[in-house]
Amino acid sequence: MSRTNSDPEAKARKPRADAQRNRERLLGVAKAAFRARGAEISLDDLAKEAGVGIGTVYRHFPTRDALLEAVYRAEVTELAATAERLARSHPPLEALREWMKLFVDYIATKHLIAPALNSMVGGASQLFAESGAQIKAAIEALVGRAVAAGEIRPDLDPFDLLRALVGVANVAASPDWEASAKRLVDILIAGSRP
Fold it and tell me: pTM score, two decimals?
């Protein structure tokens, strides 16, 4: 007896390896395209750049909104996972510095797709709330580790570091705001020392 899409066991199965690779390739190509050309790239162009058919795009992402949301979720998940990897492989202060620089890249992606996410039916407030919780947990863990090592003042609010970087992004009138924000990371770290 074959399983149908309405069968819960069929839905719970992992996707085939080639389907997973296609999805990951589509997400990577979409992220790069959004950064280079904005969120309005055509899905046909995206399929061509990813080397897949348009049917593959729609199978993974039935709408542009679904693709935008998936790129955003993937960015947040990767940012949170990177905090854990950096904590395992770098000294506390260096892990925090490197993660904050990656956070600047995250801000850039968010700036490009947030307007499109906000225009989705029902808005993106739940999505942003979920991602905010992941990001807050990551920065709190990294700062906590640096505080425990005596490299950061214990009275520092971890989220203040991110607020400063977001502030630079929000007042950015020039195309080099990302470089400025990454320089600000070192200033913030120096000002947070005990």
Answer: 0.77
**C-alpha atoms less than 13 angstroms from C-alpha of 123 in its C-beta half-sphere:** 4
Same domain, 193 and 103: yes
CATH number, domain containing residue 121: 1.10.357.10
**Does residue 194 register a pLDDT over 60?**
yes
Residue pair 71/109 in contact (Cβ under 8 Å)? The answer is: yes
Residue with tokens 């203040």: 160
Q: What is the pLDDT of residues 153-186, one digit of tens each?
A: 999 999 899 888 887 777 655 677 788 888 889 9
| Torsion (CA) 42, 48, 53, 56 in degrees, nearest 10 | -60
Has residue 22 been placed in a domain? Answer: yes
Is there a contact between 43 and 54 (Cβ–Cβ < 8 Å)?
Answer: yes
